[in-house]
Amino acid sequence: MTLVELTPGQRQLIDKIAKENGFKDHQVKAIIGSAKGDNYLGVITSVTIEDGHNKLELVLKSSHVGEIRNQVPIRKAYQREIFVYEQVFTKFKEIQEEYHISEPFDSYAKLYGTCDTESSECLVMEDLRESGYKMWNRKVPMNPEHISAVLREYAKLHAVSFAMKEKQPEAFEDLTQSMKKHIFDEYFHDAEKTTQFTDTVMGSIFRTFLDDPVTTEALKGFKERLPDVFDEVFKQPAKEVVIDHGDGWCNNLMFQYENQLDTTSPSTVRIIDWQLSKISSPAMDLVHFFLVHSSKEVLYDYENYLKLYHETLSKNLQEFSCDPETVFPYSTLLEHWNKVVKMGIYMAFNMMKIMLCDSEEAPDLTEISDGGKNIMDVMNFTAKDTDTFNTRIKDLVEFSIENEFL
């Protein structure tokens, strides 16, 4: 347990939260809240407020300082997440209550406070671990029960956007005006940076298929088409868009279980880290999450999982008095999936080595320095567990080729 000294601004915010929650003569303890490789665009600190009678366990998520801010849009990330918590979730809660949705989307941590000051950005939220929530072991594929649970939550999330667009179109337009661009949008339109990053990502994939010239040629064609894929995904979205999560890897998902000794099937899910949220096709959340977390067996059953997602989406849309067949029929979901699946494959290629690496070998963005390492240097690494990496990548590529996704 390593103690952390809060900045004066952070301590002021924590004291304000303590007062608002009825604490008197309270004590504050702060310790490091995550391991290297668990979080990349922030510093996680576990904070405990106590006054002898009551205790409140919180998570302080604060922004990096230094050269990293010149290479990564840190401020935009925190402004986006604060906006989602303070504005989007508030509006979503209101419309779901208005229509008495039986299973509303509320799968996010409780927010206690924020700071939007330049270079001191932070959010303070409930510590879900105190309620028994756990992360999935990122080194192994998720089982069908966890895959299904996450897809249902994404369906409930997306249903609110669709319903709000139908019932309150002007309010939805106002709410999403600042969310039409990805915070990394300028990076994806920088040809030099995009090429460097793509070379880094695809280099490890090509090494997996050194003895397979046929697949290598297919992957070369995939790489050549990536600029068009980026342009298609990041251009002005089409009609059927929602506010997405945008960062569906397992470290941004937490699971609670009715029986803590049996973690086969989660009872509830919480989705955390909304820094990459934007207006997008709902299929973007699906391909991002599904392709990188699924076993070979689950991958080949993808249509049944898409149907499960659409069943939940349809149920909630009907409770909003919306017709799913008009708003977003299953045939349109398949069209969206096919349109963005290449981006999902690329993201899975990028995320796989991050998910399989040990803590000590995980990229450390704080190593970025003026005149020293840049973000490309930091992200250019090879996970030690090459056997598992190669197996997972081969399964994904085989699946993608057989289904003509690549």
From TrEMBL:
SMART domains referenced in this protein's UniProt entry, alphabetically: CHK
Domain CHK kinase-like: 123-319
Family matches, as Pfam families: EcKL
Coiled-coil segments: none
Signal peptide: none
Transmembrane segments annotated in the record for this chain: none
PANTHER family, per database record: PROTEIN KINASE-LIKE DOMAIN-CONTAINING
Protein name as catalogued: CHK kinase-like domain-containing protein
Species classification: Eukaryota, Metazoa, Ecdysozoa, Arthropoda, Hexapoda
